[in-house]
Amino acid sequence: MQQAQHNGASRTTLSLSVRRTWRRLPVRYRGLAIIAIPIGCLMTSLGVLGWLQLDIVEDEALVRTAQRVNSETTRLRSGLAETQLSVQSYALTEQQRFLESYQVASLEIKLALEALEELVIDTPHQRKQIRQIRQLTDQRLFLMTKVLANHDESDPSVVLGAWIEQSEAIHDQAELKLKQFAAEELRIFDQHRRHLEKHQRTGILLVGVFATVGAIAAVLAAQLFFQLDRELAKRQARLGYLNQQLQQKNEQLQRFAANASHELRTPLAAMLSNAQVGLMAPPKDPVQPRKRLEKIAELAKSMSTLVGQLLFLARNQRRLTSEELTEIDLVELLRQVAQSYSERVTEKKVQFTCQLPPDAIKLAAQPDLLRQAVLNLLENAHRYTPAYGSITLRLKPQLKDILIQVEDTGIGIPPESLTKIFEQFYRVEQTQTKAVKGFGLGLAIVQQIVQTHGGGISVKSTVGKGSIFQIKLPSIGAC
Amino acid sequence: MRILLVEDDPEQLEPLHTALSHAGHIVDGVERGDDAQWLIGEKDYDLLILDWVIPGPSGLSLCQRYRQMGKTAPVLMLTAKDMTSNKVTGLDAGADDYLIKPVDVPELLARVRALGRRSPLWQGDVLSIADLTLNVTTMTVERRQVMVDLSGREFQLLEYFLRHPQQVLTRNQIEQALWEWRTEPESNAVTTLIRRLRNRLKGLDADDWIETVYGVGYRCKPPEMG
Lengths: 479, 226
Fold this sequence. Notes:
The complex is a heterodimer. Chain A is of the alpha+beta class.
């Protein structure tokens, strides 16, 4: 039972692997195979049919030969009997017509013998038999000629009696030989026929087999055609999908390039204007050009930040490999971030709280990138939280994931903007609040960093009340 | 000229505003489209310089509305949109000129001068009264081969007087004409400015041409005409 199951399983794996190999073959080879199978079957069937036809032709020739051998043998025997009768009658009556009939009969014998020799030319044994029969016949004819030549001189009854005895003996011998010959001929004929019947049976069987195989192959071919068709359709669908994705990616890139160039051009335009206005100032005014230079320096710094952020986004796009990750203590990392951040936050009168678990939490990460992500979230919260608001940084280890939350009591994000805030260069339109500076890349960078670590980012927000940003990272055990 | 400058980036607005003011124009600079829309309804400008992408109604729709109001003052589009199709759209919306950012300040000033010349009120690069000539390009005033440079404000005041000769101009009128929107001149600003202009004109022996009309305002009155 187990053995049978095992056999079944191995058959399944075999058929699976065959199927897999078949699918992996290029389409042209599979197409060739599909066409080759039925055509091969057809050709083989035709060949077998042709061979059978040849056999039948051969068979018919053989039957014809057998019939002729039969008739020639009969002719020979009747000829022999006729000569005997004619000689006897002539000896008794001396009538000329018996002599004539004897001559006709002996000619018949000669012709029959020649025909028989011709017919059995391929079988040496039969040829020998014929030769013996001919000798016997010749002997008899010679005897008859002697009887006919001498019958005037002696007493016909005595001579005739002796001749008849002698002739009877030879006749019996010839008859025996002829019987043997006929039997042998029959045997050969039977053998041929049996052989032929066997061939025919095999041929019919072969045709049947090939027809069946051909039919199965045709069905298979049809099925394979359908399969190929399905595969092509699938491939086309996949190509279409890929193409669509590429187009999306391309549009995204174009948007990015347009946004990036616009964002770079804006400070550039301001720098140029400031420089030119500074140059136009009267020579005796040293204050104005100095102010312009300060402005230009400030603008150049912000531009440099933008370029840095753009490069960061361009460089860190792929998922980090395990070699690039190091094991860190997330609690310690967040503590450092919180410390450096709280020094900056005091000037704005915003209350900053940090809720971290007491024990270390190990995580595989790139510490610099992770630090940048959390810092960006904190800066974002800081930017949109008015004075006397509060910002909280939380770390919540869970069963499979680790959650880092940044909660603020800021202005909040309108629902229609929630899905867009992680897009590059997206900034929520500020109508009432003061102009908030920034390039709209901070959150895009956070999302990219989190994604390179195999995590995700989400946001919940209520306009006027505040927002919660949550980073979800897989813990070491879950990886 | 009185110019409305609309540009949403304060970093770019400020130097352009300064450059245009130094060139002797009275410039109202705003960052938002809705402010600009209110101003074009309230005040008369000699030139509009509009950025395309601004919060509120866009520069393009401002230009269209301005033309629909039947106003003919030239409009200069100032934008980062650099495609030919953008230029065509902008000019078809009623703009007279189109400049692409980053803008070259000397070029902007030259184009502003060129657009000023297109105005039906344009009288050439000089304004004159009797033998006194004011060159609006170089911001200099000349009389009997003596030339004096003027500061922006002084120039604007003299230009205003020369455009309205013999007319008594009240302090309020002068404030409205010379001071930009949302700027409150100090109470004695006009008096101080008049004194400064008279000081300049002293070099040309024409300081008494600006006459004080007590209780009303001031009048430009060359002696020969009196």
